[in-house]
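Researcher: Batch entry, complex prediction.
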Amino acid sequence: MIQPISLQGMVRSTPVRTGDERRRALLGAKGLRKRYGERLLFDIGCMEVATHSAYVLTGINGAGKSTLLRVLGGLERAEIDSMRFEGREVNPHPYPKAMREAIVYVHQHPVMFSTSVAHNIGYGLQVRGLPKAQAAGKVEEAMAWAGVAHLGDADPARLSGGERQRVALARARVLSPKLLLLDEPTANLDGQAREQVIELIPTVVEAGGSVIIACHDRDLIGLPGVHRLKLRDGKLEVR
Amino acid sequence: MLDATLRAFTLLFTGDPDLWRIIWVSLKTSVFGLLLATPPAVLLGYMIGLHRFPGRRIAIWLAQAALSLPTVLIGLLLYLLLSRHGPMGSLQWLFSQPGIVAGQFVVALPVLLAFTLAAVQAIDPRYAETAISLGASRLQVMLRVLHEARFGVMAAVLSGFGRVISEVGCALMVGGNIEGETRTITTAIALETSKGEFAQGIALGIVLVSIALLMNGALMLLQGDAHAAKDRA
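Model: Structure tokens for the complex:
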């Protein structure tokens, strides 16, 4: 059973500010269509994502929530008439380097590389060529943020579902992404594990990033200050 | 028979120079051929396994068909290429160790490729996607995926070794079974036994069986590790 009281209490301390004066355009797409053969999954006329913002993306199963996130994260192709990133017109194919560095997608069931938890979290920094000492500091910070500091040397294959999700969040957050795309981050989690994950979301926005969360989770949808998007019948509704 | 077997053990344990020379030539050419074939085969196996491109199914079909290509046919093709009037005749590799290495390269390639392909295809696509999303370059994604598929890739290398050390057709056609030069374990067994050299044949057979046992033992250990890793996941 969910515990809205403790959650609301927690969330109130770090609200997501809607009327944030720091908000400006981050990512915009026009004419965003995804087809599987003859079938049109969605046809989005216009989509805008601002900085310092949290969005929840809802819709029934199969509406295309994951696909939309994967398209925005550059893991799947779609037809896109025009795309703007940080005020500049960009060509969505191949996926622009600036967007690759700024946008991180996290799977609904994240996989862990078969190394250590700390190496998993530091992987993005490592491939960016960050010096080891600097990376280690950031990894430590990210582990503390996600509450997995005690798991640094652990074998990721032995983590619980909740720990795995938090490590995946830390692995993304350590890169300070401008946009974090979370695919059902609380699905299959319950109790404390679920709350711990929900607790992390507003802090991403507070740190200056934006986040789009595909979910069914009422507590995520109900987070104060969150913008609501809904995919219905192939269209994107802004609520 | 018993007498020949006893003499075979004597040859093995007294360090008979001819026998050990044959074993050395076999191991050297097999390992060299394998080392040369591994990088391109693993790269190709990875590319075919992970990427979608036109003609991919044909590539998989060819790779798997190449597995059942008789090595004697590979030997024939190489013979034609390397013979004095062949397109690669100027290399003068026919009836030499480099010729056998070239043969082992061609023999090992399809085994390594097909096994690597299967190993890469068995890896959850989310590994590559996670690496891509975290900013890895194409090369970094490849290294990440191959690391996750490492048990399968090592199994591919071991299987490739098993194939080259035990094949006879190609080494015979291209090497020519020249004593002290291109005589390998399998060509010696095939040709020297007919001359009545039973003890040497049995001794070399024991070596081959030991290698097979070692290789399969290593494979079993690897598979055990892979299963243990899966169980933990």
